[in-house]
Amino acid sequence: MLTADFDYSLPEQLIAQHPLRRRDGCRLLVLDRRSGEVEHRLFPDLVGFSAPNDLFVFNDTRVMPARLFCRKASGGSVELLFTGPLDPRTWKALVKPGRGLKAGALLFVNGDRDAGTLRVDEVAPDGGRVVSLPEGERYGSIAELIGMHGHVPLPPYIRRPDSGSDREDYQTIYARNVGAVAAPTAGLHFTQELLAGLRKRGAGLAFLTLHVGRGTFLPVKVSDPREHLMHEEEFELPEETAAAVMRTKQAGGRVIAVGTTVVRVLEHCARLSGALSASRGRTALKILPPWEFRIVDGLITNFHLPKSTLLMLVSAFASREQVLAAYAEAVREKYRFFSYGDAMFIR
Q1: Rounded to the nearest 5°, which phi and psi values hold at 146?
Q2: Are 177 and 209 spatial neighbours (Cβ–Cβ below 8 Å)?
Q3: 90-125: per-residue pLDDT in tens?
Q4: Which residues share a beta bridge with 344?
Q5: Exposed, middle or buried, 14 (CB in 10 Å: 0-12/13-18/19+)?
Q6: pLDDT tens by residue, 230-286
Q7: Alpha helix (H) ranges present in 208-332?
Q8: Which CATH code of 2.40.10.240, 3.40.50.10300, 1.10.1200.10, 2.40.440.10 fits the domain covering 67-149?
């Protein structure tokens, strides 16, 4: 198995730069794993593919406005991407450019001392920084500061600045647990009406949390993907969700993961104990073909970047040949790709 085995050709104009006006207005490519058959549908048709014993599992993480633009005392520009707190006033962050930004440096938010000040406390081994609010800074926490001045950290393939509408467009409607730097994008297509339609069909809905980290966008730079190092991400599997999953499996229903993040949490927890129970911690699970899925029976997902670990996960759930054939058809049919793009349902 080589990283190059998961490559495909994608015209740049098919990379969605903006969300659709209606969340559920996107197209849905349905791939049957048994036959390899592909159907072209609209996302609301998902309700018709659900059954009374199905359980849809969602990731309820909420994206932080984690990108902050600052200036150094010398006048140089610095961009921060906050990745998580050590305490309310001290967070870890990636910096760009990082050269010369030493411990003790002061950073002025938006280049304005009155907007807020941050201090670099430490240069981390991975090249990131530990950043804090100095004594006397009026903000009580960095979360408060970025809530006021932060920008949505849109993925690098969205080649435009974030806008005010991205603060909600780049969140699922059920997002509630703050901590991600990227959205679980398969969930962006769901509306309250669609969730109600699933319930009316008799399907169950359950939630877990995985705070999507910066590692989701890191390219696989090694020729053998088994050597690629995954970043750890924080997760929580609540007791009620674990119990709902086990009831569904025992009743012969399908557990349908809404997004690859849900797959990773469920399969990680199943491998820890053999059966699901409430769990929280960190996971760096990497799913590559071949893979024995213990929990997940169906997957709703967006289209993923060439040679990415996400495409490899999807290719483990179906087959690499089926997935790449479906992607080639999606390109021919001019589907919209990546975070704000169209969706797949693999059943």
Answers
A1: -75, -25
A2: yes
A3: 999 999 998 889 999 999 999 998 899 999 999 998
A4: 29, 301
A5: middle
A6: 999 999 999 999 999 999 999 999 999 999 999 999 999 999 777 899 999 999 999
A7: 239-250, 260-273, 309-317, 320-332
A8: 2.40.10.240
